[in-house]
Amino acid sequence: MIEPNYISYRDSAARVVAKDDGYYRYIFNEYKAEYDHLMQSGLYQELTQKGLLIEHEEKTIDTPDPKVYKLIYPTQIPFQSYPFEWSYIQWRKAILAYLKINLIALKYGMILKDATPYNFYFSGGKAIKFDTSSFMFFKENDSWIAYRQFCEEFLSTIVLMHFNGTRWSKLTMAHFRGMPLNFVSKQLPIKSWFNLTTLLHIHLHSKYSGKNGPIEIVKNKNKGFSKEKIKSLHKMIFKQILKWETAYQYDNHWQNYYEQNIESDIYLAHKENTIKEWLEKTKPKSILDLGANTGKFSFIAANYSPLVIALEEDDNCVDAIEKEIQKQKLHNVFTLTGNLAKPSPSLGLLNSATESIYKRGYSEMVLGLALTHHLHFTNKMSFDLIGELLNKFSSKYVIVEFIEKEDSKVQFIINDKTVELESYALENFKKSFLKFFTINNEVRLDDSKRILLLLENV
């Protein structure tokens, strides 16, 4: 018998199971007709060729459970970010991919039976669906059964981000299964009522939906959608999302950091060359770049490691990284938003449906460049806490940058704060970090008051 798990326990058609060599998906007999149609009609081939659906191999069934029809081994996902960690561009890519998949599926007589962003991951600048058992047959005059879920879990967030700003996406952490439409409607500005997509699918949907389940867009209970009508509906939403190229913008200080705010070209060249030398020497299998900014050193790291994770709090910077990933078609760089003082926790059933960022981001090498002074002064973290934080993410190495208090960037941060500066010194920094690491190398960077350290876990 295939036991329920924390990831796919709600799915009666299939079950995801972790084995020694990765994640597998058992397809149950209940889903036989849909799976066979997906694979034999040409739908699977078109979706995978267009990079919209994860590829898989069929394996020999390894269980006597009579309800199992197929055992498939999907392409393994190197890194999984969650919707509450996505930037605006990532949300936009995911919802457009969802709509594209439905439009293609309808050509083959199928449609997605659910509409959750948690079924998508990013690779090479694309949003890719990894739930192979999400398809169902669609017949003339059927309803769109995933409509309410689509509005609550997908559309609501992109609408809030577009009209109100990117920080609204963090609400999806508290509303794990989608935001109530009446709540979303009340948060939106008046101008959103003059947008047809928002008016129909958020405001009016909220006002007229029943409490006991999803409503249908057409009122005639004896008639749902023809294929052409539901295609038209999807195309209308798709065209509107395409027009929403940007979210509402707050002040953005960090996006042009390396172009406008860097100490000097001499300093930057020395820093780059030193990090390249250390990465070549250590050859880490995975790298986590904390406070990645626009990804300058994440992309350098990508030349030395098969997996690079760029974590950055500023959504606009993550958007910039995502654009570059897409431009270069990189499959070994992944980016997400995150605040180290408020790290993403484990969520869902028994706190096991999602994994904390500490587990997902755990890497052989951690980069903490121009970061520790922010953690120390802005987030009030002691050197001991910063050392423990970096140690929790690292399995072996850390490259960390210490910026002395005379540096202009430190002076800028402490300018409007009451801080104690006497203990902010390199010797105290080292003393704290030596509780967790040994110092393998130390370089004072040219034309700066900055020191780069290569550390190794004790």
CA-atom Rg in angstroms: 24 Å
* Total of helices: 17
Biggest sheet strand line-up: 11-10-9-12-13-15-14
Q: What share of residues are in beta strands?
A: 15-25%
| Oligomer type | single chain
Structural class: alpha/beta
The low-confidence parts are 211-221
Relative helix content? 25-40%
Number of strands: 15
Major sheet size, sense and barrel closure: 7 strands, mixed
Average residue-wise pLDDT: 92
Blueprint of the fold:
Layout: E1 14-19, E2 22-28, H1 32-40, H2 43-49, E3 56-59, E4 68-74, H3 88-107, E5 110-112, E6 120-123, E7 126-129, E8 135-137, H4 147-164, H5 171-174, H6 181-187, H7 196-208, H8 227-243, H9 257-261, H10 265-282, E9 287-290, H11 296-301, E10 308-312, H12 315-328, E11 333-337, H13 357-360, E12 363-368, H14 372-377, H15 383-393, E13 394-403, H16 408-414, H17 426-433, E14 437-444, E15 450-457
Parallel strand pairs: 9-10, 9-12, 10-11, 12-13
Antiparallel strand pairs: 1-2, 2-4, 3-4, 5-8, 6-7, 13-15, 14-15
General description of the model:
The two termini are 44 Å apart. Strands 11-10-9-12-13-15-14 form a 7-stranded mixed beta sheet. The chain has 17 helices and 15 strands. Helix 15 (383-393) packs across helix 17 (426-433). Mean pLDDT is 92; it is low at 211-221. The protein is an alpha/beta fold. Strand 14 and strand 15 form a beta hairpin.
Summary, kept brief:
It is built from 17 helices and 15 strands.
